[in-house]
Predict the structure.
Amino acid sequence: ALQINSEGLTFQSPEVFGVDTLMLGGSVGVNLMFSGDIQNPRGQGEIVFSNIVYDTLQLGVYALDFVLADTTLQMSLADEHNTLMLGAEARLIGDFPFSATAQIRHFALDRFTSPATGRVTADLVAKGSLSDLRRTAASLHIDAVELNFENNRLHNIDPIDVEIENMMVKLHKFTLGLAGQKIHLQGTLPIDFEGADMDISGMSSDIQLSEVADFLPGVPPIAGRLNFDMRIQGTPRRLDIDGNLILEDANYVIKDVIFDSVSARFLFKNGVLTCKDLTGRINKGRFEANGFADLSRGRLDTLSLEIELKRIDYANKDFGRMLVDADLQAAGWRDSLRINGEIVVVEGVYDAPMKLQTFVKLLTNANRPGPQQPEIAKRVYCDIGITVPDSIVIANNVADLAVRADLQLKGYLARLNAYGTISAINEGTVKYLGRNFTIVNAVIQFDDPYKIDPVIDLTATTTIGAADGDYEIFLRLDGTVTTWQLGLSSNPPLPQQDIVSLLLIGQRRPGEVGTTVKEIDVKGKAKDYALDAVRYGIEKSGERLLGLDRFTITGELVDPSSVTIGIEKSIAKGFTLLYTTGIESWELHQVGASYDVTDHISIFTLHDQENLNTSVDLDFHFNIR
């Protein structure tokens, strides 16, 4: 005879890095007794599972009783409230035939469906062979199941009967209720979707989309009505879908785009989806789409879609607003897609202030390698024209002018390119070093076949009165976005130092007019001035918002690999914490602390993760007079 007894054996998931582990924890208590011989063992006992947790799922407390005699194992499992009771019997010879029953009585679903709550009452009967579970047959009868979220309730109206045999799940007709509406379902589903056909039918009355969205975590608010009457047959590789789905008065908001009054009728026949009169409004404008898609082989085989947009009003706080019309056509074949058409900017206003931080970020991203593109972006080809027949007005802290555009976007989404021209019309002004320059000519030409790197050609002029007369200052910006050159000249001619002095303070440098001076790099000075202003603004904002004593940024802002940030914070009198780290290499950081022992002696310790070095220093500081 053998007896095993333990009041409780606690276990938890081990912390092993780089290897998947079983995220299971809890405690197990056992009281087991075995006797007999190896040919015919006998035994009985109880195993109690307490506080079992899988990942973050609390499974609760369960007790398992078993009796082993005459090669037959009988087991019963129940939770602490007897809401779940499972009984099973298996022969430990031959094919290991078994039978099992389960009684579920008002079993709480909260731990599985949080934040929704729910309960289920059901009975299960199953039989089969442990040596071949594919031959298992089972029947499930669900008397009641319900989920509750806030004021919404999903529940069964009729009992649900489910049969499992020959690896097929048969759903007898049943009805679900949702916010007063009904959904009817019936049919068969294969356990192995690749191995057999499905045949599922469903229909509904009008379903409020807002009620459905409440049960889907992370879905933004959506409204409208939906009803369907459909039948799905076949395998995922070859589906035959028949029926229709009707959408009415739907509303949806995503960032700066508002969809409302969206209605459509989708027809399914022999695996072909037809979209009829998909209409609605986008930001006060209207849209309409019609077309079809062949999905009979379980993937997009053929697609044809026409989209019309009328007076779509789009606004963005960082750039301004525009009003656009568009006619687009999408054609697909064998999981590839081509989009053609024309977008017309009817009106446009760029009135948001141009922030130096925004342009530093754009320059930084332009200098980085492109991110890994999703596979679908490599299969969608675009040939879209963008025209501005009248003008887009730029009216902000940098410029005041109107421009026209005639562009063509071509290429795959993974590597889209632009061709065409953006040019200023009439007179406008541009600001530089605090002065307004009148634009004489301004053109941006997109003609690089390999990348978006347009050629800039800008000439502007202003007149400044000085003690020795009036000077006409010319500003010239040319080159590409990545290799631009900025130049200043004047009439009468002056050294560039004098020109910059006139622009900044309204007078030339002290000294003789004819003095020969070393030319300065205007472009470099302008960039340094801009970046220093950005750096100072970020540092002061960081100190204020984060409540730090010091917040510093070092390195070149346009080269993120060289940028490091540092913070200092006093957490007690005489005790200060210090931390520095790289922007792109967070693991290369330093952590330090400083403690003032007296007014003249401090202890400073520093851990340098990059060089894997830790040091402690004694610092003496005196004021010597």
About this structure: Residues 522-546 form the longest helix (25 residues). Residues 512-520 have pLDDT under 50 and may be disordered. Residues 128 and 353 are 73 Å apart (CA to CA).
